[in-house]
Automatic annotation (TrEMBL):
Gene3D superfamilies: Jelly Rolls. InterPro entries: Cupin_2, RmlC-like_jellyroll, RmlC_Cupin_sf. Residues 37-91 form the Cupin type-2 domain. It comes from Halosegnis longus. SUPFAM superfamilies: RmlC-like cupins. This is Cupin domain-containing protein. Coiled coil: none annotated. Residues 1-23 are annotated as: Disordered.
Length: 122
């Protein structure tokens, strides 16, 4: 058995990200689940690109502010207390508009595989 108490605010942000990403799964060495907390300022995004995953399912749970998610079906505004779920092969791009407010989201993806592909909507 193994248990971990993680002080998320004390984790160093991951480098080279468009917003502040603190990796819970990385801090404790999880291998089957990716779990991150994102602090997203107005005009920032969570992913490095509009993308989709072959196998990974993702859940974005917004704890503060409002996260916007662009999809081929349109843009969704997800307020604090709500979650947005992406099934495999579902293109998405999560961000906070320039005129939005600072937003915090807890994002979980499973399995923790590197199966990300850029999505070109043209």
């Amino acid at each position: 058995m193994g248990y971990h108490h993680v002080a998320v605010g004390e984790l160093d942000p991951e480098p080279d990200r468009p917003s502040t990403q603190r990796s819970i799964s990385g801090a404790v060495g999880l291998e089957r689940l990716a779990a991150h907390v994102y602090e997203v300022a107005p005009g920032e995004e969570i992913p490095l690109a509009y993308h989709y995953h072959d196998e990974q399912e993702e859940v974005f749970y917004v704890t503060e502010g409002e996260l916007h998610v662009e999809t081929p079906e349109g843009e969704f505004a997800v307020p604090a207390g709500d979650a947005f779920v992406c099934e495999p092969e579902s293109p998405q791009f999560a961000f906070v508009p320039k005129d939005g407010e600072a937003t915090t989201a807890f994002v979980v993806g499973a399995p923790a595989v590197d199966d990300v592909h850029p999505y070109d909507d043209t």
